[in-house]
Amino acid sequence: MELIVLLIALFVLSLFLGVELITKVPPTLHTPLMSGCNAISGITLVGALLAAGGGQANSALVGVLGFIAIIFASVNVVGGFWVTNRMLAMFNRKTARGGNPL
Amino acid sequence: MNASVIHLVYLLAASLFVFGIKGLTKPRTAVRGNFLSAAGMLLAVVVTLLDQQILSYGYIIVGLLIGGGLGALLATRVQMTAMPQMVALLNGCGGGASLGVAAAAYYDSLFSGTYTSVAIAGGLMQLVGLLATALASIIGALTLTGSLVAFGKLQELIPGKSIGFPGLKAVNAILFIGALLAAVALVTAPQSSSLFIAMIVAALILGVLLVLPIGGADMPVVIALLNSYSGIAAAAAGFIMGNSVLIVSGSLVGASGLILTQIMCQAMNRSLANVLFGVMAEAGETVDADEVYAGKVSSASPDEVAMILETAQRVVIVPGFGLAMAQAQHAVRELADELQNRGVEVAYAIHPVAGRMPGHMNVLLAEAEVPYDQLVEMERINPTFEQTDVAIVIGANDVTNPMAREDKGSPIYGMPILNVDKAKTVVVVKRSLSPGFAGLPNPLFANDNTLMIFGDGKQAVLGLTSALAEAA
């Protein structure tokens, strides 16, 4: 009972924190923000690992479902962070140039 | 490893995500922010692998290698112009992962006999667990297929325009209510797995049908919304396992997507419901394109436009989706360089919904090494058009249509636009006079101070640059 109340509180507070954080992101960075957040949502990988490697039922179906979840989540994580880094590196290249060829 | 230690490490990972997103608020700190998030992810994954609950590593290692390899391949191969597709695909993967986790958790409990027949007897935890399982499955399934359709549209595997059939809304409503009813039934009778499967199938179909009728220019809203869904699905999966890091990160991402969705809707002056379910508002009176354009459109060659540019003091470039289509970002940068070498002040006007996802134009121009301080948001650049000698519109249409400002009967009336028509001269680079996504003629093209350059965006811009260079 108490654990679930705590988890719901965590959920609500994180939503507020998210709103506070994201409203400060300038439009220039909206695409990297999306792909970066996307990579973070790949945190389901943790759940997928527990599902694929653990489980009380010791059933093949559960293992396969966990395996599929791991593949999806790791594409999400690796692809997301990597492509975000590629984009952000382009934004930073200009700072290196002094940002001002005027 | 001790369970409390694991949970503390999860908390650390969640904190790293928060710092990571905070880093994304400034271009200067963004790369570091992304690394912090990635470090948090690595930490969470490593500590999970050390968890004693994990008994076998066979599936895990193979899965990580396949998924990680695919992800790396996608991330290194994708072109910057294809970034909307990439983000759509990644959203879909996030949804698929949550669906997989929820299904695995469901069948694990089912086969190990954890579920008791009546939820109340099983206690509150079972009730919450089942609700979370149902929610994670529905949202995950919907995100998976919806994102795949969005990907197909952006990649032009299926037509980008709105696809629908009469009664589509009714079918969607039935599917949605059906999935919800199955979820409720599942909570009261968790042992009937056919209910679980029916619920997922309904959500999978719903995902396809929800995105199919949404046309090209509304894609930024859909992508932002699916991004939000993928986060909420992850948070729901967190509730299934009582896992704090999933809940925190999932809700952060959910909030992010919702805010972006809201920004996109505001930029089109439409409500979310209108984008998702409405066709474009009914036009009060159909505006005849021939009537608007008849005899009033003047076209010019790049040489003629170059002569105007020679005497300009300030030039504003307005990019749209056509710039991405023509891969003209580098050509545009070269034109801007040539203008700047002549002492002309150059800025880029960025409409929030230009392109196919939030920030699309910024990424393209960043690829072409345009300094980000030259990219100016709509609110800041609009007052400066009156002091602008030449506005060059490349592949943008509806976001420059003055009807949004002037014609109360117009379906796009009230949508914030870039006031390019206030500039002394407007140059529009476009293939033809065909209407934009809204299907409306653009009176801007018929204005006295507007010159059209008909042709491919990239060729036209290259032509302008060389004409300008020759004039030097």
Q: What's the topology here?
A:
The complex is a heterodimer of chains A (102) and B (472).
Chain A: H1 2-22, H2 30-41, H3 44-53, H4 60-96
Chain B: H1 3-23, H2 27-49, H3 58-77, H4 83-111, H5 119-154, H6 168-188, H7 193-211, H8 219-241, H9 244-268, H10 272-277, H11 289-293, E1 298-299, H12 302-310, E2 314-319, H13 321-325, H14 329-341, E3 345-350, H15 360-367, E4 375-377, H16 378-381, E5 390-394, H17 403-406, E6 425-430, E7 450-454, H18 457-471
Parallel strand pairs in B: 1-7, 2-3, 2-5, 3-4, 5-6, 6-7
Helix pairs in contact in B: 1-2, 1-9, 4-5, 4-8, 5-6, 5-7, 5-8, 6-7, 8-9, 12-18, 14-18
Structure description:
The complex is a heterodimer of chains A (102) and B (472). Helix content of chain A is 78%, strand content 0%. Chain A has 102 residues and is mainly alpha-helical. Chain A has a domain at 31-96. The longest helix of chain A has 37 residues, at 60-96. Chain A is flat and about 50 Å long. Mean pLDDT of chain A is 84; it is low at 95-102. Chain B is of the alpha/beta class. Chain B has a 7-stranded parallel sheet. In chain B, helix 4 runs antiparallel to helix 5. The radius of gyration of chain B is 26 Å and the shape is elongated. Classes of the chains: A mainly alpha (102), B alpha/beta (472). The interface between A and B is large, with 90 and 123 residues.
